[in-house]
Amino acid sequence: MKWSWHIGRIFGIDLKIHLTFFFLLVYIGFLAFSNGGTAASAALDILFIIVLFLFVVMHEFGHALMAKRFNIPTKDITLLPIGGVARLESMPEDPKEELLIAIAGPLVNVVIAGVLFFGLLVSGFFFQPLSVDLLLGNFWVRLLSVNLTLVAFNLIPAFPMDGGRVLRSLLATRIPHVKATRIAANIGKGFALLLGIAGFFFNPWLVLTAFFIWSGAGAEAQSVEIKAGLKGLSVRDALVTQYTQVDANQPLGSVFQLAMQSGQRYIPVVSNGNFLGFIQASSLLRTIERYGDRAPAYSGINLEPEKISPDLPLVDAFVKFSTVRVLPVTVDRELIGFITPESVQQRMWLNQQVKKHNQQPPEETVKPV
Ligand SMILES: [Zn+2]
């Protein structure tokens, strides 16, 4: 994640803090100070937030260490003002594994709450004459209640929060993974809407959380659907093989004409059979203005994406589209075609049509009389 600082490595997992987290500390300190508090009370409030986020880190490690048991590594854990995020390398397909990974986080907070409760019990806190002031003011009681709140909040079945993942895994034991995700994501969006409305009236922090749930649910449901659609396919299946390519020394003027005729957005440039890069049709005019229409085609190359093999699973290629819109496919440096998000989507659509067709009952054959 951008704007995050690496602060350490625990159990082989990088721990990072997002810059916005420090704004939260400053904000809390300022709030306590401006509410007529002393510097000491502001410091205590900041200490409270730090300890709270320590518990959030432990929560995330609950997820990460459980995932490790199922051989799923964690890229990193990042602290954000709205909580922590453990980025797993992949999501388990087995519902039982997902259930255990999802539940491990909140379980950590249950254990912490138990320890705090026991500590308070032993210290005799509960036997003091109760006063509201004491309950609100006590540092440890606040930590206990905030841990219980974390458990309750995380178990709301709002996918992709922990409770939502539990819901999806339970659904996935009965219906297909994609369908289970779709249902869980829709329920998640419903909760996000409710949280957003509630937050609008009571707490802006909830609005932010609602936004993350809404966009997270949509993004993950989509990626699960795409992954399912691309399963078993390789880059070769979505390859664009009908295209015009130009030689490195061909003048830009003729490249422009070819681009107009073919309507191609990306024009491959080759030299002695080796692929050099793409000229983007959209920038061709500007390049000609600068270098003239007699300049060689290679001077117009402005896109050199990673070359991929035709045997690469299509799912692995598809994730690369987050940074580039075209991927050249080569065998021994020679271009055999390219794939674009559109060519992949078309292939996916075709697959779905074929599946639908195969699911239809065969037409009754009419016996010739
Ligand atoms: Zn969690």
Structure in a nutshell:
By secondary structure, this protein is of the alpha/beta class.
What secondary-structure arrangement, pairings included, does this model have?
Layout: E1 4-10, E2 13-18, H1 19-34, H2 39-69, E3 74-80, E4 83-88, H3 95-122, H4 132-137, H5 139-154, H6 162-172, H7 177-202, H8 204-230, E5 246-247, H9 252-262, E6 266-271, E7 274-280, H10 284-291, H11 314-318, E8 327-331, E9 334-339, H12 341-359
Parallel strand pairs: 2-3, 5-6
Antiparallel strand pairs: 1-2, 3-4, 6-7, 8-9
Bound molecules: zinc ion.
What fraction of the residues are assigned to beta strands by DSSP? 5-15%
Radius of gyration: 28 Å
Instruction: List bound small molecules.
Output: zinc ion
**Would you report the number of β strands?**
9
Counting DSSP H or I runs of 4 or more residues, the number of helices is 12
Residue-averaged pLDDT: 86
The low-pLDDT segments are: 132-136
What is the count of structural domains?
3
End-to-end Cα distance, whole Å, is 71 Å
Sketch the topology as an H/E string, one letter per element.
EEHHEEHHHHHHEHEEHHEEH
The helicity comes to: 55-70%
Strand order of the largest sheet: 1-2-3-4
Structural class: alpha/beta
Globular, elongated, flat, extended or rod-shaped: what is the shape?
A: elongated
Largest sheet: 4 strands, mixed
Account of the 3D structure:
The structure is a single chain. 55% of the residues lie in helices and 14% in strands. The chain is an alpha/beta fold. The chain has three domains: 155 residues, no CATH class; 74 residues, no CATH class; 119 residues, CBS-domain, CATH 3.10.580. The strands form three sheets. A four-stranded mixed β-sheet has the order 1-2-3-4. Strand 8 and strand 9 form a beta hairpin. Bound molecules: zinc ion. Zinc ion (ZN) binds next to helix 2. Zinc ion binds next to helix 2.
